[in-house]
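Hello,

Our lab assistant flagged a job as stuck in the queue for most of the afternoon. It eventually completed. Since we weren't sure the result was trustworthy after the delay, we are filing this so someone can double-check. Below is the sequence as submitted and the structure that was eventually returned. Let us know if re-running is recommended.
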Amino acid sequence: MRSKLENRGASFVTLAAWGRLIAWLGMLGIAMASARGQSTTVLQDVDHRATVSLDGDWHFIVDPYFAGLFNFYHEEKKNGWFLNQQGKPGDAQVIEYNFAESPGLHVPGDWNTQRQTLFFYEGPVWYERDFAFHTKPDRRVFLHVGAANYHSWFWMNGKKVCEHEGGFTAFDCEVTAALEDGGNFIVAAVSNTRSADGVPGLETDWWNYGGLTRDVSLVEVPAAFIDEYNLHLDRETRSRIEGWVHVEGGKTGDPVTVSVPELKLSATARLDESKRAPFGIPTRNLTLWSPETPKLFTVELQAGEDTINDEIGFRTVETRGREILLNGKSIFLRGVSVHAEAPHRTGRAYSQEDVNTLLDWVQELGCNYVRLAHYPHDERMTRAADRRGLLVWSEIPVYWAIQFDNPAVLAKAMQQLGEEIRRDRNKASVILWSVANETPNTPTRTAFLRRLAGQVRELDGSRLVTAALLTRTDGSRKILDDPLGQVLDVIGANEYIGWYEQKPEAADQTTWRIDYEKPLIMSEFGGGARAGLHGGEDERWTEEYQASIYRHQLGMLHRIPQLRGMSPWILMDFRSPNRQLPGVQDYFNRKGLISPEGEKKRAFYVLQKAYQERSRGKAE
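-- returned structure --
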């Protein structure tokens, strides 16, 4: 863990120096190392590997002063308060704490909705569980964490194995040397404490759910194994699968084979000095992935003793002037924004049931596209989008005002972006990487986000770069002239006519000036309503008022010539500590088209009808 003094000193490092360091880290796809040297990585395709699940009930201890990690001089302890010198949990000298006698939390899951006493809690919580594992010779084992919000530390059998910062990206750390044959125990400390130099920063408009919020497992691999690959269709001809496979622990000259049995395709290449094997495989009569035909092929990758079977769809996405082209054809993105809020129970969404419910609603609405806001969602979401034919906008939580002048914050943002891309770069559904949402228009911010846009293009040139920008108003005209638009492929814009400004009918006279000849997605618009609250169209918080906003907005949006998509805010109400109005909000942002209980508001049907009409209209 970096001390406050170290963080303060980091701000004097030149941006260029940080850029060189993080570009190197980003190309390798490696997360930042902790101060103690335990690094993390991201293993691709973990959900298609054999794993040992560590999900279930874990003992937990709430530690608001972080006495488990720091002494009273706030110096980090070697093994942590809850581990004795033999590295076992519990100690006769530590009479205040005992994991064995402590209550349980379910993993995956946030602690806020599992324990009423932790509903508002922000701080460190310790987790512990025992498990059995039988080690094998010549095998390596990694601890896989789907997400832990926000800063996390892990010990295996008393040995610290890794540390990670970032609440929404998956990470893996090697635990081979720490595991024992037979009984084992794992201890984790997770803190959701907000910080000014975090990504996101101190303020967001969603609940700061803490804990091990996604799956935790052990992944066993051979000594040399496939840890990363990038396979996609070339844009020029759409008749060639190209990319590369990286083998961790491999040797220069080792063979790697990629095959697609259904297409009777197979090719072998050899590792170069960077341990990558480059591929270019000609194809014929390939069924291209699209919302209408979400075709996935089983792709087999083999390197020595390691084999991975992934499901990959092949398609191209690009822009031409004001158009977004999918497989060379213009497409309009009929979408909606979605938070990773669990339907019915609330809390952080993580299960396949959560995913199915949310995406069933998305498709019932008539969408072919979904904006996954405001952070990377569980991998089940992008897997399901692949199968269902839903195009995806994926983003990192560079949100509102963060420390754009702090090189350490840039490093954290680039880390999260690299982890996001590495996990999902082979998902056909993902077509847009978003680098920010509603950030202030300043030169420092623009320089910061230009670096992120450049990182996207270095790591994944097969997709498009976007961001949700703010607009400004001049009378009845909306102006979008944010200089960041110069480096984006697709312009995203958020606006709330009828809710935060003017009345809904003001949209009828609103015109737009957009200073870029690029495709525009209206990434947010809408207003709030309490499900079941009815009244006149001029009464705020009623379903009728929200529906009126949508009717006027849709008329205005269809008059914008370069509009190529929309993702109104938002599919379902979600928890937010900023939204307190008693009897109406009750700590929920009520802009959802659906309540957490599954009640569809009137605006849902207004948007559904509009999407049905558009899909039946002229070819997209």
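-- support follow-up --
The delay was a queue issue, not a problem with the job. The result is valid. The helical segments are 4-10, 15-28, 352-365, 379-388, 407-424, 443-459, 543-557, 602-616. The longest helix spans residues 407-424.
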